[in-house]
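Tokens for chain A. Residues wanted.
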């Protein structure tokens, strides 16, 4: 599954396509992006996506790769826990 996802994202990136086009600005829910090294230029793409979404946040793990939950769980889990707690009712 991860390999298929990586291939899909890499294909989008290599073709210069936007993953969700102009729809990102319409997403109002809180969103947390983490580093996905499968993209040709992950930092720039994640930064662009984060900037387009009004309630998005980005975290890049230096020692992590895709998926962060598997490659750096000790860093990923507390980040997600705190993000969810900050946005829970």
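Reply:
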């Amino acid at each position: 599954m991860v390999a298929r996802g990586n291939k899909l994202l890499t294909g989008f990136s290599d073709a210069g396509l936007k993953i969700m086009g102009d729809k990102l600005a319409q997403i109002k829910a809180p969103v947390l992006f983490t580093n996905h090294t499968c993209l040709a230029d992950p930092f720039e793409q994640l930064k662009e996506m984060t900037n387009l979404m009004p309630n998005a946040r980005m975290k890049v793990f230096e020692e992590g790769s895709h998926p962060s939950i598997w490659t750096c769980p000790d860093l990923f889990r507390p980040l997600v826990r705190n993000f969810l707690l900050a946005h829970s009712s």
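Residues 11 and 17 are 8 Å apart (CA to CA). The first strand starts at residue 31 and ends at 34.
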